[in-house]
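Before relying on records like the one below, remember that each one covers exactly one chain. Contacts with other chains, cofactors or solvent are not represented anywhere in the record.
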Amino acid sequence: MTGLGHRYADEAFSRTFDALSAFPIVLLALLFIAVAGTGTTSLIVAIGVALTAHYARVVRAQTFVVRRAAYVPHAVAFGASHPRLVSLTALGRHFQRRFEGRSA
C-alpha cells in the first residue's frame, strides 16, 4: 500500500525490501530458524519472512501499474478521496480480475 501513499514511506519500504533481497532466501530462513527455534511452525514462518521481499516487489510494481491507469485521474477529477481510490479502484480492480473467470 505504500505505492499509493507518500513518496518517503514508499522509499523507506523499498529500501528495506532491497536490503532483505540482498540476502539469499535460504540464509534468511536459516537465520530465522536459528533465532526462533526448530519446528514446523518456525520453518513455515521462516520461509514466509524470507519470501516477503520478493512478493512486496511484485505487489509494488502492480500498484504502480494501477496508479497510472486511465480511470484513476478521472476518479480524482470527479472528487474521489484517497481512501475511496484505494478501496474502490485499486482493490476493486484486483477482486474483479480475481473472480472474472470463475463464474460458471
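The chain has five helices and no strands.
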